[in-house]
Design a protein that fits this description.
Nucleotidyltransferase, domain 5, 3 domains, five-stranded mixed beta sheet, 13 helices, 17 strands, elongated
């Protein structure tokens, strides 16, 4: 089974330098974390799906209550719900929402529209097709019963269980915890701290003191880098995708079908060949039908001058019945019987002989087996007003030779 790959790229407020890595669906890194400009990132991304992580300081994470249901209606209402609590004009902001929590709260992500559009223009310029956009802060895991902290260069992210993460810029770990916990809360809180070796090494003495102050402390060094942790969390538990509203991605059917172009081309060619063969067969049958019509018209003109096709068929039938019955009233017209026999025979059976006399038609049919012969009898009888009897069924090379007698049912 092929494992899908996600190209995770994290940008700064100034866009570059960016950092990126490639993760599988389980969040495991497939390449080492790299950094550089968007041109280098585009070359590394290839055809992989792209997850963009925006700076936590540029995305405000909130929650609100909305009286309406449905994603589109909630998205239209959320700016007015939060308008009084925002410093900027809502017309200059871009809003995105996530699914409601168990308590009914609607998580919201807010960022500057012009800033986001400028970033996306640069990605488009470098041919980086973004499929998901999240705040990097939402890559901090939500750990039940635990305050989760991620320490990065010049920035600390904190997440209380079940709540939106908070980004604290320009503070260190000590300051971030002091801002988040009171003296009493320290003793009641379990803390999980993530960070790379360089970030955590600066706080070795503080971590020793912190272990004595909190209810529990776990420290995890991110050997594969901070970006891997952020991306893995969002792959497992997606946050609020900012590609909503005016930025919602339209279905890229060409892109979705791109891997199947060869198979689709072969299938289309096969269907075209079938249609072509069907057209040739239809044309051939039309020609044969026209030729038979011509022969029929000529024959009818010779035998019954001045008659059309329908009157010719009626006169032929009357003639056959009259001659076959020696002038007596017909018990079963010949042409309807012939039509019923023709409909009953299939490609596996063959009519070997037919004799019509005195309103009775005798048939000799070669069928592959007795069951098929029985089916022919029932099919002829189903035409209505016809009595069919199997006179004999003898095994021969290639199947069973059956003799059937067809006559009109007695009134």
């Amino acid at each position: 089974m092929t494992v899908a790959e996600t190209f995770v790229i994290r940008i700064s407020h100034d866009l570059e330098p960016a950092t990126w890595t490639v993760l599988d669906d389980y969040g495991r890194p497939l390449v080492a974390e790299s950094s550089g400009g968007l041109s280098a990132a585009a070359a590394a991304a290839g055809d992989r799906r792209v997850m963009l992580l925006l700076p936590g300081i540029d995305v405000l994470l909130l929650h609100t209550q909305l009286p309406v249901k449905g994603h589109s209606r909630q998205l239209k209402m959320v700016p007015f719900s939060l308008e009084e609590g925002l410093a900027a004009d809502v017309e200059t902001l871009h809003f995105a929402i996530g699914p409601a929590t168990d308590s009914g709260d609607i998580p919201v992500a807010v960022t500057e529209r012009d800033l986001l559009l400028a970033w996306l223009d640069q990605f488009k310029h470098h041919k980086l097709a973004v499929t998901k956009i999240y705040s990097e802060a939402e890559g901090v895991p939500d750990t039940p019963g635990t305050l989760t902290v991620l320490v990065d260069a010049g920035c600390v992210y904190l997440r209380q269980p079940g709540q939106q993460p908070v980004t604290l810029d320009g503070v260190d770990l000590v300051q971030a915890l002091d801002l988040s916990l009171t003296a009493e809360q320290y003793a009641q809180t379990h803390v999980l701290i993530y960070g790379d070796q360089s970030a955590l090494s600066e706080h070795q003495s503080f971590l020793g003191q912190l272990r004595e102050r909190v209810a529990g402390l776990d420290v995890q060094i991110l050997a594969d880098g901070v970006l891997q942790r952020l991306g893995a969390t969002l792959l497992a538990d997606p946050g609020i995708d900012l590609l909503q509203g005016e930025l919602a991605r339209r279905s890229d059917w060409f892109g979705l079908l791109k891997p199947w172009r060869m198979a689709a081309g072969l299938a289309a060619g096969f269907i075209l060949l079938l249609l072509l063969n069907a057209g040739i067969d239809y044309w051939s049958l039309q020609r044969r039908s026209a030729a038979l019509d011509t022969v029929l018209d000529e024959t009818c003109g010779r035998v019954f001058p001045g008659s059309n096709e329908q009157s010719c068929l009626r006169q032929v039938n009357d003639l056959l019945v009259t001659r076959g019955n020696d002038g007596a009233a017909p018990s079963q017209p010949f042409l309807p019987t012939l039509a019923a026999v023709g409909s009953a025979l299939n490609g596996k059976s063959r009519l070997q002989a037919l004799d019509y006399r005195s309103g009775v038609t005798n048939l000799r049919v070669l069928a592959p087996d007795v069951a098929t012969l029985d089916g022919i009898q029932k099919a002829i009888a189903s035409s209505g007003g016809i009595e069919v009897n199997i006179q004999s069924a003898n095994p021969v090379d290639g199947g069973v030779e059956g003799r059937l007698q067809v006559r009109g049912q007695n009134p």
